[in-house]
Amino acid sequence: MEKKRVAIIGAGSSGLCSIKCCLEEGLEPVCFESSDDIGGLWRFKENPEEGRASIYKSVIINTSKEMMCFSDFLIPDDFPNFMHNSKIMDYFRMYAKKFDLLKYIRFKTKVCSITKHSDFSTSGQWDVTTESDGKQESSVFDAVLVCTGHHTNAHLPLDSFPDFL
């Protein structure tokens, strides 16, 4: 039997965990990351990219390392209890290396669209169109996990407030 293919959008903390969980379940994950690195929001950039949330240089996490760590990979004892964003990135890199996750990530690949496959009602599959180096590619997946976070695009449920339209 063929492994079920799972598209994962985003290689931040949720995307990394999703790759690992898919592998543990015998699934075939393919993670699409529009940037050139893991970390999502936690990756500080002096000049933030268009359409990407960014932290500021001095951000220190407001929860303890014991509360924010992955249950299957503890943060090293020598890391401070309340970590600077650079230490969080170090931790994510250690996690990705420990579980060999980077080989499942397609960096600099933007997801352009996700639509129901022509036989979705029977297969439950999705068509995922991506773009990398100016070339578009479409692939079929059995599932899609959206791990893009919620800090980039505002959620404006204007249809819930018809008087304001």
Automatic annotation (TrEMBL):
Keyword NADP in record: yes
UniProt-listed InterPro entries: FAD/NAD-bd_sf (IPR036188), Flavin_mOase (IPR000960), Flavin_mOase-like (IPR020946), FMO-like (IPR050346)
Keywords from the named record: FAD, Flavoprotein, Glycoprotein, Monooxygenase, NADP, Oxidoreductase
Xref: Gene3D superfamilies: FAD/NAD(P)-binding domain (3.50.50.60)
Entries under Pfam families matching the protein: FMO-like
EC number(s) stated in the UniProt entry for this protein: 1.-.-.-
Essential cofactor(s): FAD
Top class in the EC scheme: oxidoreductase
GO molecular function, one term: N,N-dimethylaniline monooxygenase activity
Domain of life: Eukaryota
Family: Belongs to the FMO family.
Protein name: Flavin-containing monooxygenase
Organism of this sequence: Python bivittatus
Lineage, highest ranks first: Eukaryota, Metazoa, Chordata, Craniata, Vertebrata
